[in-house]
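Suppose you are handed only these lines of text.
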Amino acid sequence: MITASHAARLSPPGTDWRTLWREAITDPRELLETVGLGHLAERLPADDAGFATRVPRGFAARMVRGDARDPLLLQALPQLAELDAAPGFSTDAVGDMAARSAQGVLHKYEGRALLIASGSCAINCRYCFRRHFPYGDEMAAAGQWRKALEHVRQDSSISELILSGGDPLSLATAKLEELSRGLADIPHVTRLRIHTRLPVVLPERIDEAFGQWLDSLPLQKVVVLHANHANEFDTSVDAACRRLREAGATLLNQSVLLRGINDDAETLAALSERLFAAGVLPYYLHQLDRVQGAAHFEVGDDQALALVEAMRHRLPGYLVPKLVREVGGEASKRPL
Ligand SMILES: *Cc1c(COP(=O)(O)O)cnc(C)c1O
Ligand code: SF4
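From them, the structure of the protein bound to pyridoxal-5'-phosphate can be written out as follows.
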């Protein structure tokens, strides 16, 4: 397999993750050139179809050169299909996004409170609801944490705090230290869960300072990654996962079922096997949130169920993720 690494202008090993973050590819023409597909630039939608392009160079380097159907490329490249109107696909598919960002904390499910710790991501995934909520960096900065932690402190039924976003690991480690100090005197919180795509798309984020922070937490730790295809893994991702496990974290993964990217049993089984090789268990396989601009990624429920059934035949039970859909207002994710 010829990957794009030699064309991706990679920074030298040891470069600080914030530099790598800033150096991400933000021009879709450059992304196409990086993977040897510059001639496809005329098929790009104007203005990135309203959602900025963003891909870390290390992630682009894992794309297969010359392959317009590359599963990593398709997750990040703006497409003309995003401009097609599709009935049922809205700009507020999850229902309460506006309320989420204003409030900073979401306490919908029993025992678990979810903190919108940051609105930023290192990669802009074309299928994500975030394309309609570019809510920026302000949440943690605006002192929302104090309010959110106050809510958690007042409610002793909350035993698990979930950091989500955006990507909570977009925050500086010093910010995370601030948060964990705030948690120190809330004894009923015994678990910290982090939902993040960074160990996969920018594994350099799991640096020594972060590892030491995680080591130091007197809590049970769960890190839920987000990978959709086995090709997203390489030795740098393995190293990040290893460090997270060394800090005592249980590693899980959630994927989104995406047409043209991972909608066949072989691809999904290979993803599960690759996750396990990195010490990660598959957790959820999500049906797509029905956000405007993402309709071309949707897989029907019947096909989704058949895919999971096929996985069950091929894999040990612990490598078969739960197929779910998020439905606003329900007390849990809805199993299909
Ligand atoms: C998804 C989600 C959780 C976590 O749900 P699990 O089923 O425990 O993974 C918690 N709170 C909110 C608001 C969520 O959307
Ligand atoms: S929230 Fe997750 S899926 Fe959405 S853009 Fe960020 S990393 Fe991608």
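What can we learn from it? Residues 106, 108-109, 112, 114, 162, 332-333 surround pyridoxal-5'-phosphate (ligand 1) (CB under 6 Å). The chain has two domains: 4-83, 97-335.
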